Amino acid sequence: MVVEPICCPVCQSTDVVKHGKTDAGKQRYKCRNRDCSRHSFILKYSYRGYLADVKEQIIDMAMNGSGVRDTARVLRISPTTVIEALKKRPRSRAGE
Predict the structure, then answer these.
(1) pLDDT digits over 71-89, tens only?
(2) Are the beta carbons of 21 and 45 closer than 8 angstroms?
(3) What pTM value is reported for the model?
């Protein structure tokens, strides 16, 4: 039997425990690190919009002039997901 340690995607802590299952039957995990900003997570999301690399692509495409609908069509995600990712993006200051 091989035991693979589960790491928190935010703080990389291995102090992780099982935390129930989603409606789709996927295992949910909980990070027990008190300093971590994320408490619950899933290892393999079924929706691509939750992935960090997709969110980075959303920002990159927006900075290059792509529209919301174009970005959603290319990345195969919802336009609402694109809008929410852009709203949550921290604003960069001019000159930095």
Answers:
(1) 999 999 999 999 999 998 7
(2) no
(3) 0.61
